[in-house]
Every structure is written in structure tokens, then in C-alpha cells.
Amino acid sequence: MQGLYKTAGRILITLGALSVFSGVIAFFPVFSYKLWFTGWSVWIACPIWNGALAIMTGILLLLAHKEWTQRHLWEASFTFVILSILGCPLHFTVALASALLGPYCFYSFWGIAGTNYLGYAVAFPFPYAKFPSVCVDPPHYEEYHLTLQALDLCLSFAMLCVSLTAFITLSARLIRNGHINGQKNGQ
Known about the structure:
Layout: H1 2-25, H2 42-65, H3 71-101, H4 141-177
């Protein structure tokens, strides 16, 4: 049973790092060096914060697994697993809504007289197949946006599954023993 916590911790750290990376590269559409393409929104912030939460949960599970039988590590792990379970559906929902709404396309006539974000002018759900070149600048932004959102959907679902597994095993330990801290003999 102890190997499960070690495995869950490592998986959560890996998935959390990928989620943070996804949020960070969303700042720079299609790896553009143009500063006016950078932006901050809930679509970017959610993968970063949920990834950071998964990393912290994974670290706590690994520390608690290392036969450090202090009660506070297991309790902190249990608390962060619950927070991760609550954050993953939010991450999934934001990624799904983002994929359906479409990208914030910077149109080439941006400015006072321009259309600014073209994503608001296109019908819901975003017609990825009908208009392959809706985003004039940066090029291929639709594919980039859809790929990032698909990655976020997969990451949030995987983090939810791992967090639920850790939660169920910690809850079973709490119900069986009356506490969640480990014992020195590895049980």
C-alpha cells in the first residue's frame, strides 16, 4: 500500500509540472516573440495553479511515504488531495469551455478601428473545421489553442483520477485505523 503513495506522488508531480508548463506556454501563442500576443486570463491561470497544487500534493505524498511518520505530513497530504480533487473539475471545465469558445484571435487590423479579438465574433461552438484560417495573426493559432486545451483536458482528468485514488486509500486508512498517519513498520 505504501508504494501506491509513492507512485501517486510521482505521477502528481509529473502531471503538475506538465500543467504548469501548459499554462506558461499559453502566454506566448504559437511561440510568438511579439509582446502584444501575450495575455493573462483564467484559461492560463487555471493550469498553472492546479499544476502547482498537484506538485505540492505529490511532494507531500512522497515526504509522507518516506517513513516520516509525523502526523502532520499525512494530514497535509490528505488536505491537499482534497483540494486537488476540487481543483481538477474546475480545470477541466475551464479547458472545455475554452476549447468550445475558441481562441482569442488577434486580427490583423487591431487597434482603435480594429476588431481586436475575433473569437467573440465567431459562433459558438468555435468552427475549427469550417474556417481553417480565421486567425490571421498569429498563424496556426487555432491548432495551437485546440492542442493546449486538449492537453489540459487530459491532464486535469488524469490528475483527478490519481487524486481520487490517493483520497480513497487515505480515507480507507482513516476508517480502518482511526487516523491517517503511517506506522514505522511500513504498514
